[in-house]
Each structure stands twice: as C-alpha cells, then as structure tokens.
Amino acid sequence: MSTEFEPACRRMEWLDPFYKSVWEKAFADAIPISGTFELTPRCNFNCRMCYVHLKPDQIPKYGRELTAKEWIRIAEEAKEAGTTWLCVTGGEPLMHPEFETIWKELCSMGFFITLQTNASLIKGKTADLLAKYPPRGAKITLYGSSDEVYEKVCRVKHGFTDADAGIRALCEMKIPVQLISTVIRQNEDDIKRMAFYAYIHRLPWMATGGIKASCRGAESEARQVRVENKLEEQKREEIKRRLEKVPVDINRKPCTYCKDYRLGYWVVWNGDMRFCSFLNEPNIPVRDMPFQKAWEELIRYEEALEWPEECRTCEAQKVCFKCAGTLAAECGSPHRVTEEYCGRVRKIYDEMKGE
Ligand code: SF4
Ligand code: SF4
Q1: Can you give the pTM of this predicted structure?
Q2: Closest-approaching ligand to the CA atom of 248
Q3: pLDDT confidence tier of residue 3, bands split at 50, 70 and 90
Q4: Residues 158, 318: Cα–Cα separation, whole Å
Q5: Ligand 1 pocket, residue 139 CB under 6 Å
Q6: Of 4, 25, 66, 252, whose CB is crowded by the most CB atoms within 10 A?
Q7: Is any atom of ligand 2 closer than 6 Å to the C-beta of 211?
Q8: Which domains does the chain carry?
Q9: Is the peptide bond before 282 cis (omega within 30 degrees of 0)?
Q10: Residue 246's pLDDT band (boundaries 50, 70, 90)?
Q11: How far apart are CA 30 and CA 14, in angstroms?
Q12: Closest approach atom of ligand 1 to CA 53
C-alpha cells in the first residue's frame, strides 16, 4: 500500500497528518476526493506550448462546452460522492460564457477550490466576483516578466501588464497565490526575472520545462519550443538514478504512477471524465450519466490499463520512467510506443551503460 500511494504524497496535504489520513482513506476506499473541472478550451492567450486551447470555431469538432446547469449537476453529485478539493481550470476558466453562475454555485457548495488562471482577466466585475466568492487559492501561470516575453510565448499584447494587475488584485484580496512558469525557448532567458518577480511579491513560484505535446486537438508547438538540452539532462539524471538505485518495476500498473489514482479525476470541457488531462481517453460521458457511475467506470479503466506490450520485453524497461499521460502525449496513445520516443530513451541508456 505505501508504494502504491506514493504519487499522492507529492501533494502538499501529505505534510499534514490530518490530511494524510483523509487522503489515505480516500485511496483505500476509492473515494473521488479531488476533482478538476476544466471549464473551457477557450483562452484569451494563445501560448505556443498549450495542449488544451481551441479557437471557438475548432470547438465543435471535439464536442460542446457544458452549460452552467450541467456543471452544477455534476458538482452536486461529485460532492455527494466525496469530492472536497476542486480545481477549476481551462483553457482560461474565466472565459466560460456562464462562469459567474458556475463559480457562485461551486463556492456555495463548500468545496476547497483552487482557481487556475492566467490572471489577465481578473479585473472589474470578475475581480468583484472573486472578492465576494474567494477561492481557497489561485494558481497563476506566469509566462514572463515583461510584455515582450508574453508576446513571444503567449502571442498577445500587454499580457504581462494584465497578468500583473490580476495577480496584484488577488493579493489585495488576500487570496493565496502560487505562481507556475512553463519554460520554453521563448522565455528561457527570462527565468531569473520571473523568479525575482515572485520574490519581490513574496509568492511561491515553481518553473517547469516538462512540456507535453497535445493529443486533444490543440495546435501545440510543444515539440519545437521545449528546451531540449535541459530535458535531456533531466532524462539522463533520471536514468542514472534508476540504473543505480531505483529501477522501474514494469509490473506496477501505469495508473499507480498517477497522483489521482483511485482518488482524483478530471472532467474535461466537453463533459468526459478522465484521470489525466494529457490523455484523450477514456471518454466516460459524465455529462450524460450519474457521477458515481462515471467514477466507478473510471476506476475500472484505471485498474485495467496496462503498459504497451513492447515495454514488457524492452531492455530499457528498468530505467524508462513514464506514465500513461507521457505515452499519450509523446506517442499519441497510452497503448503504444513510437520509435522516436523509445529511440531517445534507448540512446541515453546505451551511452550510460557504457559509462
Ligand atoms: S497555456 Fe494557459 S494561458 Fe496559455 S493558451 Fe493555454 S490555457 Fe491559455
Ligand atoms: S523505451 Fe519504449 S518500449 Fe522501452 S520501456 Fe520505454 S516506452 Fe517502453
């Protein structure tokens, strides 16, 4: 049990003995304690590496956005099933046409809500709404420390000016803000300035270069813009660690590497329930069925998911650390591998064996 639960311990709540026992209980009984509502694929930014964003005319190809009434029905049933922590995200969630109605209802239901946003729309009526119905915390994606860098990454004018104003507004409302920066080639040289921005505002900040390609229709340039040399360095470190200390156990199922295994879920913008935002399956239509039934179906999917056959006989299996979401993003599906992906892993592995 302790090994299997390991992914969830990355959550902050793990540090607190009370939350730890709540999460352990949820895991043991498969209670959907943590959910994410991805309200919309719309966004006022157009980030090069985004795996969700769809333009309005692209949306019908992949489904339709749920109405406020549909989100509220799902939320009520999710609460009944045990959901306590709720992340509201997008795209840019504030761009859902009925955001105000959804937000008021979710807040009134008593969830511990984290709002994930680019912060650029937090002004006027929206700022008033958040002041009246504050989330428990806000995760803000910070893409640079100037409008010039935002223009290169997010392809918008005044992106930093708007995001900065939104962040300041949230801080004035005393809403705990956490900054997260995705690092790509276009903002790589700006990392220190982003860190400094977080420092002077006394905000927690983390940066990630782990950009995943989209298998959900977004026109992502992830493969072209990720900082490959840094990622390869990380891959080498990871393989070294696996070679020397902790080999990957191929008998451990893909979902056991997921922090949401047996206790969390995503409802993507078109009303499909999944366990990971990077996947394009399973398509469990919680929009058309009772939440509890969808959740049970998700657990069955998680338990049944296996690694692709190639991994079982691969000589690099002990050093190849991945999850179902990685395979989906890199190889297009959690059920298959590609020469391109495996070739990269095996090349590093062969070089390191030699060392
Ligand atoms: S990464 Fe975030 S801010 Fe950028 S386009 Fe996607 S949803 Fe919008
Ligand atoms: S290198 Fe490819 S086949 Fe081998 S374990 Fe990794 S993903 Fe599977």
Answers
A1: 0.92
A2: 2
A3: very low
A4: 47
A5: no
A6: 66
A7: no
A8: 2-226+254-305 (3.20.20.70), 227-253+307-355 (no CATH)
A9: yes
A10: confident
A11: 17
A12: 6
179 lines ligand 1 (CB under 6 A): no
Q: How far apart are alpha carbons 227 and 270 in whole angstroms?
A: 31
Distance, in Å, from the CA atom of 113 to the CA atom of 35, rounded to the nearest integer, reads 10
- State if residue 154 touches ligand 1 by the CB under 6 angstroms criterion: yes
- The alpha carbon of 6 is separated from its chain's Cα centroid by a whole number of angstroms, namely 18
Annotate 294-318 with DSSP letters as a single string.
Answer: HHHHHHHHHHH----HHHHH-TTTT
Percent of the chain past pLDDT 70, that is, above it, reads: 95
Place of tokens 């790509």: 184
Of the pLDDT bands very low, low, confident and very high (cuts 50, 70, 90), residue 22 is: confident
How many whole angstroms from its chain centre is CA 178?
15
The residue behind tokens 């451990």 is 252
- Distance (Å) of CA 98 to CA 20, 24, 25, 124, 241: 35, 35, 35, 16, 48
Strand order in the sheet with 205-208: 205-208, 177-182, 137-141, 112-117, 85-89, 34-38, 264-267, 272-274, 284-285
49 and 211 Cβ atoms separated by less than 8 Å: yes
Report CA(50)–ligand 1 centroid distance (Å).
6
The single-letter DSSP state of residue 333 is: S
What distance in Å separates the CA atoms of residue 226 and residue 215, rounded to the nearest whole number?
Answer: 16
157 pLDDT more than 70: yes
What are the structure tokens assigned to 245, written together?
A: 């200390």
CA distance 146 to 347: 39
Q: How far apart are CA 24 and CA 211, in angstroms?
A: 30
pLDDT band, residue 2 (cuts 50/70/90): very low
Which token pair is 203? 């905000």
255: which residues sit within 8 A by CB, 6+ positions away? 261, 275, 302, 303, 305, 324
Length of the chain as a residue count: 355
Distance from the first to the final alpha carbon of the chain = 36
Query: Does the CB atom of residue 48 touch ligand 1 within 6 A?
Result: no
| Token pair belonging to 22 | 């709540």
Is 169 in contact with 117 (CB distance < 8 Å)? no
HSE toward the beta carbon, residue 13, CA cutoff 13 A: 15
| For range 35-49, the mean pLDDT | 97
| Ligand 1 close to Cβ of residue 42 (< 6 A) | no
